[in-house]
Design a protein that fits this description.
Its cofactor is Mg(2+). Keywords: Hydrolase, Magnesium, Metal-binding. GO terms for molecular function: 3'(2'),5'-bisphosphate nucleotidase activity; metal ion binding. With 203 residues, the protein is α+β, with helices and mostly antiparallel strands. It is 38% helix and 21% strand. The protein is globular and about 45 Å long. Strands 3-4-5-6-7-8 form a six-stranded mixed beta sheet. It has a single domain, classed as 2-Layer Sandwich (Fructose-1,6-Bisphosphatase, Chain A, domain 1).
Length: 203
């Protein structure tokens, strides 16, 4: 039986898939555009780019929903070179399946990208429908090529209804788990769940 949140789950999976592709592009780059935020935590261009893609995809399909994200666009507004790098990532990252890509919509300009990132500045998750995201969970591990996750959840009146995790570096065939870059990077997996309907995984 289909859940009441089947559409949200599908869009969230596709959004996480596309954002994960962006993070993998950054992972291959020598310079990951890292900087320290005011709270001394690490952020990279992958964090900014993934947040832009996730929020834009959700907003395209559910325009009344609000967001709680990890980042804001303050650093990008003050650093045009960094802003350009993020824009190049956001504007060039697409799903291979044209129909799926069209479902997510696109970010059409640098200014729209900055505005979308800033939409993640909400602070309350107790009212209405709120999407909570961590574009790169484990940024320090991401920078060194270890395991990290791209995370998204839908809360309704403070109760979690949908959750999706992208694990781009995870190799499900690995026989050992260790803290460090995988010796044999896997194709990665996406794990998703709807409250009361169990969880599924897919490449």
């Amino acid at each position: 039986m289909a859940s009441d949140y089947a559409e949200e789950r599908r869009i969230a999976e596709l959004a996480i898939q596309r954002a994960s592709l962006l993070t993998q592009t950054v992972l291959l780059a020598r310079d990951k555009g890292s900087l320290n935020k005011e709270d001394n935590s690490l952020v990279t261009i992958a964090d900014f780019g993934a947040q832009a893609l996730i929020i834009s995809a959700i907003r395209h399909n559910f325009p009344q929903d609000i967001f709680i994200g990890e980042e804001d666009a303050k650093a990008l507004r003050s650093d045009k070179q960094l802003q350009q790098r993020v824009w190049e990532l956001v504007s060039s990252t697409h799903l291979d399946d044209k129909e799926s890509e069209e479902m997510l919509g696109t970010v059409n300009s640098r200014e729209e990208m900055l505005e979308v990132i800033d939409l993640g500045s909400s602070t309350s998750s107790q009212k209405g429908r709120v999407w909570v995201l961590d574009p790169v969970d484990g940024t320090k591990d991401f920078v060194r090529g270890a395991q990290y996750a791209v995370c998204l959840a839908l809360l309704e009146k403070g109760i979690q209804k949908v959750g999706v995790l992208g694990c781009p570096n995870l190799n499900t065939d690995a026989t050992n788990i260790f803290d460090g870059p995988p010796k044999t990077p896997g194709p990665g997996i996406i794990i998703s769940a709807v409250s009361g309907y169990g969880a599924t995984t897919r490449p």
